[in-house]
Amino acid sequence: MAYFLELHEATVLPYLFNLDLSREGRVILARLLHEIRAHAESYINSPERRLAPGSDCFWVDLIFRDPGPQVIHRLRLILSDAAAPYGVLRVVYAEDETGAPGR
Where are the domains of the chain? Predict the structure, then answer.
């Protein structure tokens, strides 16, 4: 099942919007977010990805190279599957752990 991926409007959406990415890097990020939707069942069904036993939150790391500045990004996402029965996964936290300048 493919899910709708909802980005938290007050925290995640502005954070991703303000990442120092080239146009090509943003296209890659959008593609990777789409991949989360397409493969969500494998993340949801992996207990080792849960923040704690029984938690509705799990983590996904997106690692990619921005072709413009050649920076490798490691984006840590925390998603909630509390609304998964309705076809919705919510990204509740995002952090770029690259340590690259300008963050």
Answer: 4-96
